[in-house]
Each structure stands twice: as C-alpha cells, then as structure tokens.
C-alpha cells in the first residue's frame, strides 16, 4: 500500500485530475453502450460496428488532412497575433472544407462500393455511407473546433464538451440501437460526433467569433508546408492502422465466421477502455515535457519516471483484470460473449508491451521524427497483419491476440534499441 501511495502522490497523477472525471464518464458510458450493443445486436453486430469504426478513423484522417495536432500547436502560438491567427484558421479550415466536400461526394456516389468493401456482399448498408456523406462536414467541423479551443488553452471547455458529447452519444446510441438494432448501432457511430458540432460551436463562440476570422483573403498556401510533418504522421497512423485492423477482421469472418470477429472486437473494446488512462496521462503530462526536453538526460528522466511510476500500476491492473475476466465479460456484454474470456491472456500480454512502447513512440511526435515514425509504424503493422494470418491458421481466434502480443513485444524491443541512448545514457 505504501508503494501505491507514493506513486499516486506524484505530480504526474495530479496533472491528470482535471481530465479524470471526463475519462471515467467516457468509460462508464462506453460500458453501457457495449452492453446495449451486446444485448440487441450480438457478436455479429459487434463485428460490423468494428468495421465501420475502423473505416471512420481512416475517413477522419483523410478529411482532416491529419492537421488536428497542427491546429493545436499553431493556434496556441498565434492566439495573440490577430493576422497570423486568421491565416492559421482560414488556411486550415478552407483546406479541410474542400477535402471534406470531395470525400462526401465520393461517399455518396459510391456508397454501394464502400458497403461491399467494409461490410461485404452479404450486407446491404449502403445507406450508412450516404448518411456519413451528409454528416461528415459536421463531424470534421467538430474536430476542427475542439482543436481550436484546445489551442487557446481552454482545457476545461474541451473537457466539458467531451462530457456533454459522451452523454449525447449515450442517448443517441441507446435510442437508435433499441429502435433499429444493427442499423441503429451503425448510424449512432456517424451521428453522435456530428451532433457534437453544435455544442463545440457554442463554446468556441465564447472565445472567438470563428467564422469572422475565416476568409479566403487570409488563405496562405505556404503555411500548409509547416503542417506537412504533422499531417504525414497522422495520416500514416490513422489510415494504415484501421486498414490493417479491417483486413484482419475480414480475414476472421472469412475463416472463422462473423461471431468470432465479434468476440475479437469485444476484446478490443475492453482494451480501449483501460488504455484511456494511459493515453490521457501521456498526452497531458509526458508529451509536453518530451517536446521541450533538450538533452538525452532530460528525456531519460521522463522515460524512467513513466516506467517506475505508471507502468507498475498498469501491470497490477492487468493482473486484476485477468482474474476478473469472466465477470468483466458478463458485466460489459452477455453470456453469449463468454468465449471472449479465452482471449484475455495474450491481449493483456500485448497491452503490457504496448503500454511500455507508447512512451517511446510519443518521442517521434515530440521531436517530429517523421521518417523514423513512418518506418516503425509500417514495420509494426506488417508484423501484426502477417502474424495474425499465421497464428489464426494454427490457433484459431486466439491466434489473433497472440499476434497482438508478438507485434507489440517486437515493437517495444525495436524502440528500446532505437532510443537506447535516451534510455540508458
């Protein structure tokens, strides 16, 4: 207990207190949504929802041009310089609006093609992509506004927006799934973030009259070059990652059936909930410090603060989750999902390696190491895809989570070698 008290009293835990309520609410609402999906649409519906989520992640990356982190950075830098702020907002907003409009037209006109690619010929959900085409500008507009608010340093407003958005998402999801089952589950993924646009617009108008600061006369094409590294890293991660996950899920469906794909998706949902804590702590506390660290010694102290302070607590949590796995599955889903329990061991092993890797991976963003990031990302995704095919053929669905463990074990060792000077100097 003394060990835990010492860890919990450290500044990095206090740094996350402002965001803690938002994360807990998001997790609780995620639990409820997962339960509703499990009850009303079952494992097969869960698999289809996973396919659409992966597709949405890639679509979002293309539609935002990967500019989200760049918006935060440059709004923060120019918020007190009226002309530069207008150039920043106008250039990014108009560029994203143009691309978003093109993508919406493509989604609407080729909805049947996207249905075939994402869901397969057995399912007729082309209307989902037409709905996405209409909702996409609002969805992307919300991301742009949230990033702008974040750039102004209004963290409380971002958190309030996230909390409100979580409750809107819960109400919309429950209502749609209850009334429309699988179709409702798919539509809820599209409509919820689009509705949040109006909440975000309310908060940004308190800070700045957004649309009065956006004009074609302030559009600066040369400014886009400064965003290129952020854009490239975000696009590689947000496009290739979901594409590989989508390909793996389709391979599971082809070889083992859609229910097994639903079990894998359910396991991924559980993993995503507890990883919210890790990503929040790194984003709020470690990333800003890594960005300003000037020497290997400063970077080393941050790495080891994470490994001594955060990782042990995370590992303890993983052990507890493993022994409570049957209870967790029935709490979050239904008895129909009990086969998910056998996936926990290798998923948790992989997640421990992932948690150990993530602090090193953020160094790529902190120091804008674009090429190294792209190579490492392609390498890890390649290992994940081919190892999942290999292990699936031998160990069935459990082989996919074994591939997850192998991938992040390999990724962690690779990053340790690459950043050895910063870790052991």
What's the structural blueprint in terms of helices and strands?
Elements: H1 2-8, H2 11-14, H3 17-40, H4 42-64, H5 68-78, H6 82-109, H7 111-118, H8 126-151, H9 155-180, H10 182-207, H11 223-226, H12 228-256, H13 258-292, H14 296-309, H15 311-323, H16 325-332, H17 344-366, H18 370-395, H19 398-418, H20 420-424
Care to give the gist of this entry?
With 425 residues, this protein is an all-alpha fold.
Description:
This protein is mainly alpha-helical. It folds into 2 domains: 181 residues, no CATH class; 181 residues, no CATH class. 85% of the residues lie in helices and 0% in strands. Helix 4 runs parallel beside helix 10. The two termini are 32 Å apart. The model has no long low-confidence stretch (mean pLDDT 87).
Radius of gyration: 21 Å
Largest β sheet strand count, sense and barrel closure: none
Along the chain, the helix and strand elements come as HHHHHHHHHHHHHHHHHHHH
Low-pLDDT residue spans: none
Structural class based on helices, strands and sheet pairing: mainly alpha
Number of domains: 2
Separate helix tally: 20
Terminal residue distance? 32 Å
The share of residues in helices is over 70%
* Gross geometry: globular
- Counting DSSP E segments of at least 2 residues, the number of strands comes to 0
| Beta-strand percentage range | under 5%
Q: Quick check: average pLDDT?
A: 87
């Amino acid at each position: 207990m003394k060990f835990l008290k010492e860890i919990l009293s450290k500044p990095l835990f206090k740094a996350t207190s402002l965001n803690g309520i938002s994360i807990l609410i998001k997790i609780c609402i995620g639990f409820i949504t997962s339960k509703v999906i499990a009850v009303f649409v079952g494992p097969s519906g869960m698999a289809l929802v996973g396919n659409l989520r992966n597709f949405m992640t890639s679509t979002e990356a293309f539609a935002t041009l990967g500019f989200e982190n760049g918006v935060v950075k440059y709004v923060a830098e120019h918020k007190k310089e009226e002309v530069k702020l207008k150039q920043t907002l106008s250039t990014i907003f108009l560029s994203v609006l143009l691309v978003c409009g093109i993508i919406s037209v493509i989604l609407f006109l080729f909805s049947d093609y996207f249905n075939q690619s994402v869901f397969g010929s057995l399912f007729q959900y082309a209307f989902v992509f037409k709905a996405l085409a209409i909702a996409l500008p609002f969805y992307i507009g919300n991301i742009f506004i949230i990033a702008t608010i974040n750039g102004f340093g209004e963290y409380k407003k971002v958190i309030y927006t996230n909390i409100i958005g979580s409750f809107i998402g819960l109400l919309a999801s429950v209502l749609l799934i209850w009334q429309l089952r699988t179709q409702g589950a798919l539509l809820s993924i599209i409509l919820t973030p689009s509705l949040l646009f109006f909440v975000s617009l309310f908060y940004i108008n308190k800070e700045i009259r957004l649309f009065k600061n956006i004009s074609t006369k302030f559009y600066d094409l040369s400014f886009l070059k400064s965003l290129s590294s952020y854009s490239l890293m975000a696009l590689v991660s947000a496009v290739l990652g979901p594409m590989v996950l989508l390909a793996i899920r389709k391979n599971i469906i082809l070889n083992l059936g859609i229910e097994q794909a639903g079990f894998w998706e359910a396991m991924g949902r559980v993993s995503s909930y507890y990883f919210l804590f890790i990503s929040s702590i790194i984003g709020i506390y470690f990333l800003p410090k890594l960005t300003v660290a000037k020497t290997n010694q400063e970077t080393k102290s941050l790495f080891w603060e994470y490994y001594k302070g955060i990782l042990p607590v995370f590992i303890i949590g993983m052990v507890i989750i493993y022994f409570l796995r049957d209870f967790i599955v029935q709490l979050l889903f239904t008895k129909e999902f009990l086969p998910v329990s056998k996936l926990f061991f290798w998923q948790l092993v992989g997640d421990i390696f992932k948690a150990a890797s993530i602090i090193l991976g953020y160094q790529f963003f902190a120091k804008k190491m674009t090429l190294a990031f792209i190579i490492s990302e392609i390498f890890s995704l390649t290992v994940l895809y081919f190892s999942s095919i290999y292990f699936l053929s031998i160990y069935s669905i459990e082989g996919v989570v074994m591939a997850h463990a192998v991938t992040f074990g390999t990724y962690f060792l690779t990053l340790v070698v690459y950043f050895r000077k910063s870790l052991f100097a």
